[in-house]
Amino acid sequence: MELNRVVVTGLGAITPLGNNVSEYWKELIAGTSGIDWITHFDASKFKTRFACEVKNYDPEDHFDRKEARKLDLFTQYALIAAAEAVKDSGIDPEKLNLDRAGVIFGSGIGGFNTVFLELKSFFEGDGTPRFSPFFIPKLISDIAAGQISMKYGFRGPNFATVSACATSTNAIIDAFNYIRLGKADIFITGGSEASINEPGVGGFNSMQAISTNNDEYKTASRPFDATRDGFVMGEGGGVVILEELEHAKKRGAKIYCELVGGGLTADAYHLTAPHPEGLGAANVMKFALEDAGLSPNDMDYINVHGTATPRGDIAETKAIEKIFGDNAYKMNISATKSMTGHLLGAAGAIEAIVCILAIVNGIVPPTISLNHPDPEIDPKLNLTPNKAQKREVNIALSNTFGFGGHNTSAIFKKYSE
């Protein structure tokens, strides 16, 4: 069976570095840190008092007050990113076969803030149940996908992926497979997250997963650095429009690049820690290369999962060296979570956008705050330290891994006829 080719025709993002794709890319290339003190709640008694929040955000700039009250913040971010991507793609829903237009969109945690606020209100009351009628529809992780489909009338495949921090790459790969198997023509796909709240920060603190470096908070997200002490929480959303090539050409769509391969694996090892030798990470990159029909020598750039956890960064670089051999030292590697923080279920979507724009613009964003390279990480690897580097990027790979041992890799390639 000949598989359909799948291209990227639209991008949308709301991130700690900018509330649209253009702002996001500009700050990435500049090496800007999106970290600041937490404003969503009083964090003065928490071990971590900083995060990568979306800046200058007012729901009423995007939704009327009544509508905003029906939407958890993660769904608001999803709809905003989707609106930008749809506009960017030039889609006219009236000219699409809407039965073959789908939405696959995920969130690692979903309406976490809604759950927290509703339960807080109940337990602080007299025990009388006064729950919002929107409580359940606001919290469920699939509601963002549903809301997007309702807004644009997309009646094709519609569901949410949930694989922790691998969620949105998982969504992108699922959409990719539906299109290349001929099950749909076009997808709005990606992920969003909004978990910078008391239980989110408190829970990750208790796991010792996030940085507590309040004294140097601006540079606390420091992948590959010997002084790293965990990731920095982020929030936001990212969307890519995936489309069957002939469908895109027929409507005269702008084509950013081609999505050519995806891999999905499990570590089957530990609740939160990666396999120490990066077994699952190595397998997922290997399977993605095979799926794309590429060799390790073809790769130009890897946007790594690179969260700045002590074990995770080492395991991932070991896996890269195992799979890419000598080419591991010729290509660029960067961890843009050093700037955005970790958007959990939305990480893969905003990092896929990094790979796509690196191909389009011939620039690799840096890994910032990398001033004391970890001696356990091979110094021959080009981790793109602190400054963006210009180079031709024909093929780029995005890695995202999640608690539970979920691993995903997506490969993007410069488009050519």
Task: Give a description of the structure.
There is one protein chain. With 417 residues, the protein is of the alpha/beta class. It has two domains: 7-250, Thiolase/Chalcone synthase (Peroxisomal Thiolase, Chain A, domain 1, 3-Layer(aba) Sandwich), CATH 3.40.47; 264-413, 3-Layer(aba) Sandwich (Peroxisomal Thiolase, Chain A, domain 1), CATH 3.40.47. Helices cover 33% and strands 18% of the residues. α11 (310-324) links the parallel β9 (301-303) and β10 (332-334). α7 crosses α13 (347-361) and α10 (279-292) crosses α11. The model has no long low-confidence stretch (mean pLDDT 96).
Topology, element by element:
Layout: E1 6-14, H1 21-30, E2 36-37, E3 50-51, H2 65-68, H3 73-89, E4 101-106, H4 112-124, H5 135-139, H6 143-152, E5 158-159, H7 167-180, E6 186-193, H8 198-207, E7 236-244, H9 245-250, E8 257-266, H10 279-292, E9 301-303, H11 310-324, E10 332-334, H12 337-340, H13 347-361, E11 363-364, E12 389-390, E13 395-402, E14 406-413
Parallel strand pairs: 4-5, 4-6, 9-10, 9-13
Antiparallel strand pairs: 1-7, 1-8, 2-3, 6-7, 8-14, 11-12, 13-14
Helix pairs in contact: 3-6, 7-13, 10-11
